[in-house]
Design a protein that fits this description.
This protein has helices at about 20-35, 50-55, 70-80, 120-125, 170-180; strands at about 40-45, 65-70, 85-90, 100-110, 130-140, 165-170, 180-190, 205, 215, 220-225, 225-230. By secondary structure, the protein is an alpha/beta fold. The strands form 2 sheets. Strands 1, 2, 3, 4, 5, 6, 7 and 11 form an 8-stranded mixed β-sheet that branches.
């Protein structure tokens, strides 16, 4: 089995977050129609629960589950949780086994942690109901090149880690087509500028002109962001 390494050194960025990020607002728009008829919803990598707290207000009849590998973040989510329809659990999704199927599965910013995208993608798809949706947000390459990147953040003295891998749209699409799935990539454009941070792992933006900006990682790698929507 291929070893998986997570950038847990970025956990602090999610400790106090309450408001939805811009890409999460876009996620809500993309799933809003499906959410009206759904019975359950799984958020993989739910962090402190802020996304589920916001989404649950749109349909309080849905059963929401939030899983995260960080016990610290799940504890925070449970402390804030007053909604009986939301359940938060500390789960390593790679080891999670269930016969339950979900109408909507959300996985944001996680796929780039893996050396082989096929392992998590097959796993997540196995949780999806036949008529369900799997929506993945993250970095994908519009050019037909896949990159595997290891980084070491000297700011917080981290070990060598993954987290900036980028698979091409064509590679992902070919995999899904062979499996018989329908899919769509929706380009995400960040509507604000982000300044550079003291912590070099943080992304920042550079304006190309008045209407366009690019997003750079702390490793000075351009981030192309997409929502990937997968259905049967």
């Amino acid at each position: 089995m291929i070893k998986k390494t997570y950038i847990n050194s970025q956990i602090d960025a999610n400790l106090s977050r309450i408001k939805l990020k811009y890409h999460e607002k876009k996620t809500v728009k993309l799933i809003s129609k499906k959410l009206k008829s759904s019975k359950n919803f799984l958020d993989i990598g739910c962090a402190n629960g802020s996304f589920l707290f916001n989404v649950s207000s749109l349909n309080n009849k849905v059963e929401y589950s939030g899983f995260d590998i960080s016990k610290k973040l799940i504890n925070l989510a449970n402390k804030k949780n007053t909604n009986k329809n939301i359940i938060f659990k500390t789960v390593n999704i790679d080891d999670y086994k269930t016969k339950k199927k979900f109408d909507i599965i959300n996985a944001s910013g996680i796929l780039s942690n893996y050396e082989d995208f096929r392992i998590p993608l097959k796993n997540w798809l196995s949780f999806k109901d036949k008529e369900g949706l799997l929506i993945i947000f993250g970095c994908f390459n519009s050019r037909n090149i896949d990159t595997i990147i290891k980084i070491r953040n000297n700011y917080n003295k981290s070990n060598w880690q993954y987290g900036l891998n980028q698979y091409s749209i064509k590679t992902i699409g070919h995999f899904l087509e062979k499996k018989g799935y329908n899919y769509k990539f929706v380009k995400f454009e960040l509507p604000i500028n982000i300044k550079e941070s003291k912590d070099p792992i943080r992304s920042y933006t550079v304006k190309i002109n008045q209407k366009k900006r690019i997003i750079l990682t702390g490793a000075n790698i351009v981030k192309e962001l997409f929502h990937l929507i997968i259905s049967n």
